[in-house]
Amino acid sequence: MSGDLVIQMAQEALRMVLLISAPMLGLGLLVGLAVSVFQATTSIQEQTLAFIPKIVAVFVAILIFGPWMLRLMVEYVTNMLVNLPYYIG
After folding, report:
1. pTM of the predicted model, to two decimals?
2. In this structure, what are the phi and psi dihedrals at residue 43, rounded to the nearest 5 degrees?
3. Domain tally for the chain?
4. Are the C-beta atoms of residues 23 and 64 closer than 8 Å to each other?
């Protein structure tokens, strides 16, 4: 297994991690920003107010994007297992 192949595999793995985590992180970011703007406009300084909406947003993102994320992971693992003899040999 050459160094170039290892780098290519690591790049593909990092790309998959970013693709799979992006919907949850994006919705969590948007909800956190909305809650922060709400807190700033109403002068509510409760630190724990942001956690519940973020948790709900991430859960909703998992429900909505779950099938897509699962399909990506299955395709990635299938591709890795099919090409395993090429990687080893």
Report:
1. 0.77
2. 60, 30
3. 1
4. yes
